[in-house]
Design brief:
With 129 residues, this protein is mainly β. The protein has one helix and ten strands; from the N terminus they run αββββββββββ. The longest helix is centred in the first third of the chain and has 5 residues.
Length: 129
C-alpha cells in the first residue's frame, strides 16, 4: 500500500456522497474594497450539495501579499483540513474569508494549491467565455 495515500474517511462512510470538481470556462476575479485579490482563467467549480458551489482558484493566481494566514483550521471529512486567510483590504469583513485544503484527501487532490473565498465577505465576479 502507498504510504502517502490519504483516503477520505467521509467517502468511506458515505460512498454515495458526490462532490464535483469542474473547470470554469471563463475568468474569476475576486476583489475587496476595489483591490483585486485574485484573477484566474483556471478556476475550478466545486459543487457539494446541499451547499452552494465554490470557485477554487489556483494559488499562482492569488495575490498572497494581500492575505494573512490565520490560526483557524477546520476538518471536512471529505476534503481534509482547511486552512484560512484574512483578506486584508476587506478589513474585519475579510477575517477568514479565504480557505484552502493544502493537503486534501486523495479523492479531492485536484483542489490542492487552490483557494476559495466566501462570497459574502469579498466580491467574486465570474465572467463565462
Amino acid at each position: 500500500m502507498d504510504q502517502h495515500a490519504n483516503p477520505s474517511p467521509g467517502f468511506r462512510r458515505n460512498p454515495g456522497k458526490v462532490i464535483t470538481v469542474e473547470p470554469f470556462n471563463g475568468r474569476v476575479v475576486v476583489f475587496a474594497n476595489g483591490t483585486i485579490i485574485a484573477s484566474s482563467a483556471k478556476a475550478k467549480m466545486v459543487t457539494e450539495p446541499p451547499h452552494p458551489f465554490s470557485f477554487y482558484i489556483p494559488f499562482e493566481d492569488i495575490d498572497f501579499r494581500k492575505l494573512r494566514k490565520t490560526e483557524r483550521s477546520t476538518l471536512c471529512p471529505y476534503k481534509g483540513d482547511a486552512s484560512y486567510w484574512n483578506v486584508l483590504p476587506a478589513g474585519e469583513t475579510g477575517n477568514d474569508a479565504m480557505w484552502a485544503y493544502e493537503q486534501p484527501f486523495d479523492e479531492m487532490a485536484e483542489i490542492r494549491a487552490h483557494g476559495a473565498f466566501y462570497p459574502d465577505r469579498v466580491t467574486i465576479d465570474a465572467t463565462p467565455r
